[in-house]
Each structure stands twice: as structure tokens, then as C-alpha cells.
């Protein structure tokens, strides 16, 4: 049986960063790490949006990333 030892949560924002020579969108990424795992998604989304509002690039998407460390339960 497997047990979750630790969960780390971070968020990543994808920003539009112009276009390449082929006409496809280019993207830049900003990471927000060390977010409390029990923080409400809505609250974190509002804070991330507020921070991103301070820069000029258009926000394309915001992702929630969860890393879980698993260990064998003995």
C-alpha cells in the first residue's frame, strides 16, 4: 500500500510573449512556488491574477501543479 508523504503545490502562469517567424505564439512562464496545499483555489487564483496585472504581457493560462511524494506504508 502507498501513502502520500508530502504534497507541494505551485502555480504556473503562461503569458503571451509575441510571435515567432512562423506566426505561432511564443510564451513566457512565471512560477509561484511554496503555496500552502490547503489554500483555496479561488483565493490563490485571485492573488496570482492581481500579481500578473502588474506586468504588461497578456495572461494566456494559469496552471495548478501538485507534486506528491509517495512512500510505502509498512
Could you describe the 3D structure shown?
- By secondary structure, the chain is of the alpha+beta class.
- The chain is 16% helix and 58% strand.
- It has one helix at 41-52; strands at 2-19, 25-35, 59-72.
- A 3-stranded antiparallel beta sheet has the order 2-1-3, covered by helices on one side.
- A hairpin with a 5-residue loop joins strand 1 (2-19) and strand 2 (25-35).
- The termini are close together.
- The model has no long low-confidence stretch (mean pLDDT 92).
Provide keyphrases for this structure.
single chain, alpha+beta, 3-stranded antiparallel beta sheet, 1 helix, about 70 residues
Q: Which secondary-structure class do the elements indicate?
A: alpha+beta
Strand order of the largest sheet: 2-1-3
Largest sheet: 3 strands, antiparallel
SSE succession: EEHE
Strand content: over 45%
Q: How many DSSP helices?
A: 1
Shape: elongated
Give the topology, please.
Layout: E1 2-19, E2 25-35, H1 41-52, E3 59-72
In short:
With 74 residues, this protein is α+β, with helices and mostly antiparallel strands. It has one helix and three strands; from the N terminus they run E-E-H-E.
